């Protein structure tokens, strides 16, 4: 039995979709771009690991907070203008980060980068879903493929450019985002029907819907595990002699390729055979086990590298299935659902890097991975407990009473 509608050929998309997808690749490169150069920045700018991890936190906090307001803005000025403003801000602040002379300035510029990222990413998802051929599932797979490719290329580009200077990756991002800006100006000609302006409170009210509330809470703990793996592992590899930008770049390139492969090919296979909540309930515990393996193998270079690659495979599945679940779990406008979910998701990820660095410093190098595993176990529990509210996402029809109750809770 299929649990999602059949889609068309994912490669047969309008040019506008490919333009937005390309810009998505570059935007997601920004997440992993700094991974290989974290040790270099810490060394050259005489910053502690905790300070350097704030490059993730400032970026993710501002991204998360701003996400709550992107649907309000895009519903008034249109998706294209919102996308272009976001891209322009990323170009500007990536350039400023490359010119910075101290870690505090880079932390601040990464925050501005996060604002542009929020405007772009949340609107890009809704734009791709609205414009892509083949239905919602095909559009989300395309979006998650862009995420995976961006996460793969980001560390590799960061590693290659980082061999020249830690400033190189920032300048490279500015150039690529400028190309994305031009592509969207040129190829995204129309935006479809004029959107109905949504109130600024819409994403916050959306979180009161039981389905979206459970998924957002799940995302907080899931992303704690996600960014513990992404942001802390480079520092765990340094004592094992793997500190060069190019080495770390290739390791996380392998991680990103794993994310891309499973998000595009494995996730759809699983969701055709099982309900989405079942997939989440199976794969989340496997991610917790992978984080536990990272903790136990923290003194083994081979063990850490293998666990990072396996983690990428699991994260690719989870990213796709969680995004599909969010988009299908309610009857809310997709831009509102995306803003609400993404805001909470990125705030969850923002907590992990500094907490991981603090736990490693105060307790032990393995403690961040233990904490990540516990967080993912909690995420699993939330999916299991909230499953009765996620029938719509599983392709099951809610009763009129259940649907009315969910809507009344969200509107109260």
TrEMBL record:
Q: Its membrane topology, per UniProt?
A: Multi-pass membrane protein
Domain Major facilitator superfamily (MFS) profile: where? 16-391
InterPro entries (UniProt xref): MFS (IPR011701), MFS_dom (IPR020846), MFS_trans_sf (IPR036259), Tet-R_TetA/multi-R_MdtG-like (IPR001958), YfmO-like (IPR053200)
MF terms per GO, please? transmembrane transporter activity
Chief localization class? membrane
Q: What keywords does the record list, in alphabetical order?
A: Membrane, Transmembrane, Transmembrane helix
In terms of Pfam families, this protein maps to: MFS_1
The record's subcellular location field reads: Cell membrane
Instruction: Report the transmembrane regions from the record.
Output: 16-34, 54-75, 82-101, 113-133, 140-164, 170-190, 211-233, 245-267, 279-298, 304-322, 343-363, 369-386
Gene3D superfamilies (UniProt xref) = MFS general substrate transporter like domains
Q: Report the leader peptide range.
A: none
Can you quote a single GO CC term?
plasma membrane
Q: Which PANTHER family match?
A: MULTIDRUG EFFLUX PROTEIN YFMO (PTHR43683)
The name on file for this protein is MFS transporter
């Amino acid at each position: 039995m299929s649990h999602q509608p059949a889609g068309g050929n994912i490669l047969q998309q309008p040019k506008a979709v490919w333009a937005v997808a390309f810009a998505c690749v570059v935007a997601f490169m920004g997440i992993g771009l700094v991974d290989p150069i974290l040790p270099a920045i810490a060394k050259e700018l005489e910053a502690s690991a905790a300070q350097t991890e704030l490059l993730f936190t400032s970026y993710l906090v501002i991204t998360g907070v701003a996400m709550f307001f992107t649907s309000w803005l895009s519903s008034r000025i249109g998706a294209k203008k919102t996308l272009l403003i976001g891209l322009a801000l990323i170009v500007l602040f990536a350039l400023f980060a490359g010119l910075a002379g101290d870690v505090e300035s880079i932390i601040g510029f990464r925050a501005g980068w996060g604002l542009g990222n929020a405007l772009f990413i949340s609107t890009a998802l809704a734009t791709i879903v609205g414009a892509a051929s083949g239905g919602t599932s095909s559009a989300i797979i395309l979006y998650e493929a862009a995420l995976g490719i961006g996460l793969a290329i980001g560390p590799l580009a960061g590693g290659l450019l980082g061999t020249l200077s830690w400033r190189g990756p920032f300048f490279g991002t500015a150039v690529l985002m400028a190309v994305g800006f031009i592509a969207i100006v040129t190829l995204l000609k129309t935006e479809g029907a004029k959107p109905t302006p949504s109130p600024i409170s819409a994403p916050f009210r959306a979180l009161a819907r039981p389905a979206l509330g459970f998924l957002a809470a799940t995302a907080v703990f899931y992303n704690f595990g996600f960014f513990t793996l992404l942001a802390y592992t480079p520092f765990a590899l340094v004592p094992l002699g793997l500190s060069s930008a190019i080495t770390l770049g290739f390791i996380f390139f392998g991680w990103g390729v794993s994310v891309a492969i499973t998000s595009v090919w494995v996730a759809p296979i699983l969701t055709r055979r099982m309900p989405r909540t079942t997939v989440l309930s199976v794969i989340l515990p496997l991610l917790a086990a992978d984080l536990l393996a990272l903790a136990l193998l923290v003194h083994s270079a081979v063990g850490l590298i293998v666990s990072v690659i396996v983690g990428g495979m699991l994260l690719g599945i989870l990213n796709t299935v969680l995004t599909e679940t969010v988009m299908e779990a309610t009857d809310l406008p997709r831009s509102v659902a995306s803003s609400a979910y993404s805001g909470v998701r990125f705030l969850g990820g923002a907590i992990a890097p500094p907490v991981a660095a603090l736990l490693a410093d105060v307790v032990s190098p393995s403690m961040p991975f233990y904490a990540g595993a516990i967080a993912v176990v909690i995420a699993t529990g939330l999916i299991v407990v909230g499953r009765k509210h996620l029938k719509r996402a599983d392709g099951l029809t809610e009763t009129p009473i259940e649907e009315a109750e969910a809507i009344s809770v969200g509107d109260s």
